[in-house]
Structures are given as structure tokens and as C-alpha cells.
């Protein structure tokens, strides 16, 4: 109403820009969804077999995890340069679709900024209709019916919500692209830096080639096969990060504690039967919740006040774990192993 299509060149420009941003959002969204991140082939191992010692083995894909790859439980595959599993594209964001995913975010944010401005000015003119009627340009009076007003306010709210939420995600993505880190690698680096080490053993993140090269690697020159040919900074081993991951995993194994389940749990996200406090303080994560039955053994690796994270084991063997996830702390009691014997050391936690 206040900016009709043919009123000026500016309005034509605004319409063209808006259509471009909508098309770009949809195009990049569907590309990110259908191109997918790229998967590590089943049963994969590096060309040089002796390099296998630097890599973790994925028992679910029956192959080695290439550098930067991680197993996604939702995709049920090892994903190349996995960033995260995105429920909006129902796929992982990884090596092949990282650029498309980021372009989708920025297109959506810019489109919604433009919408917010157009809608806000429309609303402002509608509320000040009398002023515009008396002193303004009579050609472009904005008059909204109750339904039009409701839809305009609703659309303005949605557009603003996207700007804030998706804009935040875009900011985080760009920060990581500039450092050539994925969200998962960011965690590994934080743990690597805080891990106790000797003076001459300094951790250097191997993929940070400088901000411009890092951006180019994602948007213009996606690297080779996405498996082993990642360029690394001088002085780093091609497997620096995977070696660090193996050490961190060993550390985690050394820290884990065995618990036995004394109350069954159905895997619910809000288990009201386990008490209000447990129900109201769930872990802020979309990681799995594991259903458990009385007598199950769980190796716990993370502790919260009312929740524990661990691996459920089908036998007494620590390696034979079949599922990982969170469960309410009140369902378990802790054990320690002394000379091969399992001794109960703590009373039931409440
Ligand atoms: Zn896998
Ligand atoms: Zn996934």
C-alpha cells in the first residue's frame, strides 16, 4: 500500500531484491537438504593402512572415521566434516552442503530484515493514518482491516523472530567458518586446550589456514574428497586432530564410572514419575535419552545434579556398549570395581 510496485525505481528494486532473497533462501534450503553432507563409505580405511592407528573405528559403519568425520545417529552414517544434524533440513550439515546451508541462513536473515522494515513502516503508517491523511501523500495511505492488521503484526513478529534466531545461528556458523572449525571440532579444541599436558606438547589446531583461506575452502574451493586430503598448517601432522580425539576418548574412559539401574526408565524427556525437579531440569541437549530396566549396567561419563549421561552395556565388558544417552540420576546407584569384584559404594541417590 505504501510502496506499490511501479511507484518508483526504488520500489521496483525492493521487490526484485525481496524476490531474489526468497528464491535464494528456497534454493539453498533445498540444495542443503538434497545434496546432503557426504558420507564416509561403508568399511572405509585410509590408503596407507598404517594410518589406521591414528583413526577411530566406527562399529556401526564397520569402517574407520576419516579425519573431521563423525557418526550421526539420526543419519545412521559417518558424516564427512560433520557440523551438526539440522532438523530443519532433516539432514546433517557437513562437507558438501556447508556452503549451501550458510547461504540459506544469510538469505533467510536478509529477507526477513527487509520484510520487518517494510511491515514496520506499513504498521506505523496504518496507526498514524490521520496524520498521513492530513499532511502526507494521499496516494499511499495505509488502511488495514482487523484481519489485515492481525496478519501484519503476526508476520512482523515471525520475521523479527527469524532475524534474531537464524541470525544468531548464522553468526556462530561464520565465526566457526573463519576459524575452519565445525561445532564438534570447537568442543574438541576446548577440551584439547584445557587438557593437562607437558611444556613441549602444545596443541595447534591443524585446519586453521587463515581467515580468507578458510572462507574460500567452504564457499569457493571445497576440498577434494572430504576424507583425508584436508590441508593442515605447517608443523602439524595430517592426523593431529584425530590423535587428540583418541587421547580424549582414553581420558574419558579412565574417568567413567559404572552404575547399576535400580529403577526402570522409559526414555521419556520429561519423566514426571521421577519427580518434579528431575522433570523440570532436563539436560539442555537433543542427545538421546536411554530407556533402562532394573539391573542394567551403565558406564557414566557425564554428571548433572539430576541426570547422568552414559553408555548402556549389554554385558559386563566395557567395550560392548550398545546405546548412549541421558537418564535420571535417581534411577541409578554407583559401583566401583576392586580386584575384579563389584562393590556397592554409594547408597541410592535421590
Ligand atoms: Zn559411523
Ligand atoms: Zn545427521
From TrEMBL:
Entry's free-text remark on domains: The DHHC domain is required for palmitoyltransferase activity.
Domain Palmitoyltransferase DHHC residue range list: 55-187
Record-listed E.C. numbers: 2.3.1.225
Keyword Transferase attributed: yes
InterPro entries given in the database record: Palmitoyltrfase_DHHC, PFA4/ZDH16/20/ERF2-like
Superkingdom of source: Eukaryota
Protein topology in the membrane: Multi-pass membrane protein
Pfam families linked: DHHC (PF01529)
Family designation: Belongs to the DHHC palmitoyltransferase family.
EC class of the enzyme, as a word: transferase
Reactions listed under catalytic activity: L-cysteinyl-[protein] + hexadecanoyl-CoA = S-hexadecanoyl-L-cysteinyl-[protein] + CoA
PANTHER family listed in its UniProt record: PALMITOYLTRANSFERASE ZDHHC16
Protein's name in the database: Palmitoyltransferase
Keywords recorded for this protein, A-Z: Acyltransferase, Membrane, Transferase, Transmembrane, Transmembrane helix
Compartments where found: Membrane
GO CC entries: membrane
Recorded GO MF terms: protein-cysteine S-palmitoyltransferase activity
Amino acid at each position: 500500500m505504501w510502496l506499490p510496485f511501479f511507484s518508483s525505481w526504488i520500489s521496483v528494486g525492493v521487490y526484485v531484491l525481496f524476490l531474489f532473497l526468497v528464491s535464494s533462501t528456497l534454493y539453498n534450503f533445498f540444495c542443503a537438504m538434497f545434496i546432503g553432507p557426504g558420507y564416509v563409505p561403508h568399511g572405509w580405511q585410509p590408503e596407507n593402512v598404517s594410518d589406521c592407528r591414528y583413526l577411530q573405528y566406527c562399529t556401526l559403519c564397520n569402517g574407520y572415521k576419516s579425519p573431521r568425520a563423525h557418526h550421526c545417529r539420526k543419519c545412521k552414517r559417518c558424516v564427512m566434516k560433520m557440523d551438526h544434524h539440522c532438523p530443519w533440513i532433516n539432514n546433517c550439515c557437513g562437507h558438501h552442503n556447508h556452503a549451501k546451508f550458510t547461504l540459506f541462513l544469510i538469505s533467510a536473515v536478509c529477507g526477513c530484515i527487509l520484510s520487518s522494515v517494510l511491515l514496520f513502516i506499513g504498521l506505523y503508517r496504518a496507526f498514524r493514518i490521520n496524520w498521513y491523511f492530513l499532511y502526507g501523500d494521499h496516494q499511499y495511505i495505509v488502511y488495514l482491516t482487523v484481519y489485515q492488521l492481525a496478519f501484519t503484526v503476526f508476520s512482523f513478529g515471525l520475521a523479527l523472530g527469524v532475524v534474531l534466531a537464524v541470525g544468531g545461528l548464522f553468526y556462530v556458523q561464520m565465526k566457526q567458518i573463519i576459524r575452519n572449525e565445525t561445532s564438534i571440532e570447537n568442543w574438541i579444541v576446548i577440551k584439547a586446550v584445557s587438557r593437562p599436558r607437558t611444556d613441549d606438547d602444545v596443541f595447534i589446531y591443524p585446519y586453521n589456514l587463515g581467515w580468507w583461506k578458510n572462507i574460500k575452502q567452504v564457499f569457493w574451493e571445497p576440498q577434494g574428497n572430504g576424507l583425508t586430503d584436508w590441508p593442515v598448517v605447517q608443523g602439524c601432522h595430517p592426523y593431529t586432530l584425530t590423535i587428540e580425539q583418541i587421547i580424549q576418548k582414553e581420558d574419558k574412559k579412565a574417568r567413567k564410572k559404572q552404575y547399576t539401574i535400580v529403577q526402570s526408565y522409559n526414555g521419556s524427556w520429561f519423566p514426571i514419575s521421577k519427580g518434579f525437579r528431575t522433570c523440570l531440569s532436563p539436560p539442555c541437549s537433543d542427545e538421546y535419552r536411554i530407556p533402562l530396566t532394573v539391573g542394567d549396567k551403565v558406564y557414566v561419563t557425564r554428571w548433572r545434579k539430576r541426570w547422568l549421561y552414559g553408555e548402556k552395556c549389554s554385558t559386563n565388558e566395557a567395550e560392548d556398549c550398545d546405546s548412549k544417552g541421558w537418564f535420571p540420576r535417581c534411577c541409578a546407584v554407583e559401583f566401583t570395581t576392586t580386584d575384579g569384584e563389584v562393590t556397592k559404594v554409594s547408597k541410592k541417590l535421590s
